[in-house]
Structures are given as structure tokens and as C-alpha cells.
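Quick bug: Pyridoxamine 5'-phosphate oxidase output formatted oddly.
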Amino acid sequence: MTLATLGLDGGPSARTVLLSAVSEVGFRFHTDARSTKARELAADDRVSLVIVLPERAQQLVVQGRAVPEAADESREAFGRRSAYLRHLAWVNDAEHARLPDEERQQAWAVAVAETPDGPLDPPGTWCGYEVVPHRYVFWEGRADGASHRTAFVRTAGGWSVDHLPG
Ligand SMILES: Cc1cc2nc3c(=O)[nH]c(=O)nc-3n(C[C@H](O)[C@H](O)[C@H](O)COP(=O)(O)O)c2cc1C
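Here's what came back:
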């Protein structure tokens, strides 16, 4: 999904993240606490998410607040990630990124040789957030008619519903 935050310069800031889990409460993602997005979220927790399913002609846009997840929940989510992604969380830091390509490949090979099934524990900088929405907009396209959006906005008693042009 696309995660949009407010940049520290006040402008928009967006990138792709893996949607780790969805529940009735919100949408979870995981990242590195040293990342730009983590610093931006510490300053302003307002976010927008965009999830697009082109094969189904569907899109979901979410606006909400990113709430830091408890450490044990982040740890559990780390365990659900593939070995490749668990290695990535350990290896892919700023220092690694600045190495020449050959050295980066060597460092990766060493990490994989040390724990072929991937590290079990997350690095100390591993962290997660749950985006708790206050607005959902579902978009549906169709070949034989107009696209259509349904917007849900959180109210004191539940959710208001509105229908919008695509
Ligand atoms: C398909 C895809 C999935 C990604 N998933 C994640 C993710 O789950 N967590 C993450 O921190 N970065 C993920 N990234 C990398 C981010 O897009 C981004 O480059 C990185 O997190 C640095 O972002 P920042 O500097 O804005 O914090 C993913 C990138 C792609 C293309």
C-alpha cells in the first residue's frame, strides 16, 4: 500500500509499505525506527493509505492516525515475515546502502550464511504502527458504467456514509 505522511518540511511524503495485518481497529505496517517516515510520524501522526487492486478495479483510500504498536506485537509480526524480509530488516541500513554493490552482496551472503532460515529476533530498530482510520473511501470501477465511490466518515455514534463520483 502507499503510505503518505506529512514531511518535516510540511510537504507530502509517500512511499510503499507492506500491509502487515488488517483488523476491525486498523491497518498495520512495519518499518525501521531510523527511517524518514518514523521521524515524520513522531512529529505528526496523521496519515493517508492507498490500497489499489487493479485486477478487481478497486481502490481503498484511508485517512487516520498512526499509533505506535506495542513491542511484543511488533516482535510477533517480525516472526511472520519471510526469511528474506527478516534478513533485510537487519542488513539494510544507511551504512550498508553506501557500500559498493559488490560489498553489499558480500555482506548479504554472510548474513544469509549465518542464519539460512532468517534471524528469529528483530533488530532493536524494528517497529510497527497501526493506522486507526477516521475516513474510508472505497472506489469501484466498472467497464459498463460509471466508477463510484462510497465514503465512510467516523462520527460520534458510528459512521456516516456518502456516495461520490469516481
Ligand atoms: C513493494 C514494496 C514494499 C515495501 N515494504 C516496506 C515495508 O513494509 N516497510 C518499510 O519500511 N519499507 C518498505 N518498502 C520500502 C519503502 O517504500 C521505502 O523506500 C523505505 O521504507 C524508506 O522510506 P522513508 O525514507 O520514507 O521512511 C517497500 C517498498 C516496496 C517497493
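Actually, after a second look the formatting is fine. Helices lie at 36-43, 71-80, 83-91, 94-97, 101-114. Closing.
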